[in-house]
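User: Could you walk me through two proteins back to back? I'd like the raw sequence and the structure tokens for each, with a short line separating them so I can tell where one ends and the next begins.

Assistant: Of course. Protein one, sequence then structure:
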Amino acid sequence: MKNRGFTLIELLVVIAVIGILASVVLASLNSARAKGRNARRASDVKQIMLAFQMAINDTGTVPSVAAEHCISATCYESWANYVRNSTVDAWLAPYLPTWPSDPVGGRARGGYLYFLNFPGGTTPYDGSPAPAGHIINWATEPPLSATSCSGGKVWAVESNYVECVLYIN
């Protein structure tokens, strides 16, 4: 019997199947990366909240500053105009050994913000009432799930981010 090898059609079918499998694997990998970045954000928020709670227990108050401030190593995209504040930094420094750094993802905003006097109101997400107070604000990557805000409240849901708030006191 004569060995003919592969025909061109057989070779193209094999290449197409490999391409489809590769695209499925890459889509799963991107989803896993987003979940990993969101898990890191949840951990950072817990660390920030713990630092605030310890500082409040020791000092009896929150830092009195005039505006919203970045409390991560940097804030980026639409939150780049929020800068760190030396008063807040000095107040948190004994309790926050390293400043969290929000993992860069494909979102419209990033970092962790501290709002001294959050005005409250109703959430753009579901219209539920949100009280005024001191909050930490951050954004995660979609999709929206029960754990997206790691104990915080969903403030807004957009196509490329889920914005979360967590009340300090």
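----
Protein two, same layout:
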Amino acid sequence: MLIASLLLSITTPALAAPVDWMVAQGAANCSATDVDFSDARHGFASCAFSNAMSTSDGGLTWNVFPTGLQQSLVFAFANSSTELYLARLGLYRSINGGSTWTEVGALSKNLGSVFDVHFDGVRRVAVQGGNLLHSNDSGNNWQVGFSAQENVNFDELHFPTATTGFASGGITYELGSYGSVARTQDGGTTWTLLSFPHGQITAADFSSASVGVLATLASQVYVTNNGGDSWQLLAVLPDAAVLTDLAMRDASHWYATSVSGCIYETFNAGSSWVASICDPSSRTLAAITLKEGAAVAAGNNGLVYFENRIFRDGFN
């Protein structure tokens, strides 16, 4: 009986464990800085050095293409498979899937990079330099909602509702590390600077007007349940991880990308984190999106991961 059992264990291969994350193909010529999806199949990413890339199969394969914009791009938004937006020196729009680009408005005449833009119908809110801008005509004209201040810097926008939004970021230099959080309750027309004395913020997400999570340069995660009026230390990240992006799937399951090329996940609302996958070459992952269900993370030198937990069973 023992011999038979041993023979069975030798001749019967073990079933392979399902692969949660897979490496995408075709992105080798892109160091991605941001990624966005318009639907379950169609995605778009900005690249350093003026390239961009797109996918039509949910993130399994990518096509890298030049934009001709002559700048390292930092922001991508896919309104549809053909209407795409990029930003850095200004905000740029394509209506033919990226073949040609035109500037929207005249943000390139201002000082500072356009790091993030929020879209809500014809309403736009943008981070440029230390300023928070808003537009009511699809970005053709802009007004200042928050003027730049010393040691106050923003690089992310999150609008969990049409009216309530948050801007976050910060700066670290020889005089210290400063975190910045601002809140709007009128869709970005006016902003209130909130107190955050815990250092530069490197990643953030907000699931409602009350609940949000931030990660700092010191590898700490903070949570608010009152719209940013106060913050509580939730966890210290493993591996001294410095996060680049955060995404909350639901109340308990959150994702994060890191400078070291790892995707971290928590299944208990941030109390503990695990590295789900790490790039063997430690290529930085810059951004992650959960649009349309599956997580897709993108970063340096062609590194793109997609969440095979959802994709491995195919599309409906």
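The longest strand covers residues 165-173.

Let me know if you want the two compared in more detail.
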